[in-house]
Structures are given as C-alpha cells and as structure tokens.
Amino acid sequence: MSTSLSVCEHLHDVQDFTPHDVTERLMAAKEQCRLNGARFTPLRQQIYQLVLAANKPIGAYDLITQLQQMRLSEPNNNDDSREALSSKKQSPKNVAPPTVYRSLEFLLSEGLIHQLTSINAYVPCCHPRAQHTAAFLICGQCQRVQECSSVPVQEMMSFAEQDVGFIVERSVIELSGRCQACQ
Q1: Do strands 135-139 and 173-177 pair parallel, antiparallel, or not at all (unpaired)?
Q2: What is the pLDDT of residues 121-161, one digit of tens each?
Q3: Which of 39, 121, 144, 152 could bridge to 57 as Cys pair (CB 3.0-4.6 Å)?
Q4: Strands (E), 23-170
C-alpha cells in the first residue's frame, strides 16, 4: 500500500461544456430517459440545458428567472389575426417554482445533475450514465466546481454500506476552499 496522498483518478470542471457538448449531453439524456422509461419533458430538457450551459453552479430561482426570460423573448411566429386574439399567445405562462423543483428532482434521480447543498445550487454530472460517488471541490472565490470521482471516495461509501450496514440513498461530499487558479 502506498503512503503517498491519493490523487483523484477523475477530476473534471463541471461547467466546462461547449455548445456542442451541451447538444450531445441533451441527446444522450433523451436516450437515457427513453431507455429507463422516464419522460424527458420539454421543461426538463430546458432546465437541464440551462444547468449544462451555466458557467457556475445555478440555483433554482436563477433557473426560474432564466426560463421566464426565455418565455418572454420567444417570438410569436404566427401573425394570423386569430392567433393574435388568443391571450395565451400574448402573455406567456409564468414559471411556477414547484414545477422547476420537480424537474430538478427528476434530473437528480436520473443522475444527470448534482445538488450542492452547501450553496443550494445545481451542477451537471460529469458521468451521468455511470453510477458513482463523487466529491465536489468548490472555490469560494470564483465559484469553480470540480467533480472528483476517486477510489477513496468510493471506499468511504463501501465502508458505510458493507462494514456498517448503512444504506446510502444520496451522498454529497463537498469541500470548500480556493481552486488552483485563485491561490
């Protein structure tokens, strides 16, 4: 057994996605949900896309604000006078917090995102199709978040389940400090 400090085998910035990556992640999530028999509704897709595209952890109320702005900025593609009379077309429906929270719970349950409880925000999962335990390194200065999947983290979970008999339903391991760039 080595006495050196264990280094993460997988360390990823969770907000480092290009627009192409976001599109690929959305398509993969649709397929994953289809295979699981889960409904990946348009609202769930929009929320997942916003979490993927965010450049830092994003809170539920920030998501609500962004969704509302998206709905307000959607152009009315049909200038037909009958459509103009419809009040539904003139004023977009408000985004209700419970629907956003339900969508976030869905994304969590499908393993597509993680919730950072210490800052009450959400980030994309770096390995959404793989069952894994992760620790999050959260920079208090720049809000950079790195997801670390490593053997020691997995060993801690195995100890809880196998040696202690504790059934882990959800885990969030968060370390707050300063990232390499802010030191």
Answers
A1: parallel
A2: 999 988 776 677 788 999 999 999 998 877 787 888 889 99
A3: 121
A4: 113-116, 121-124, 135-139, 145-149
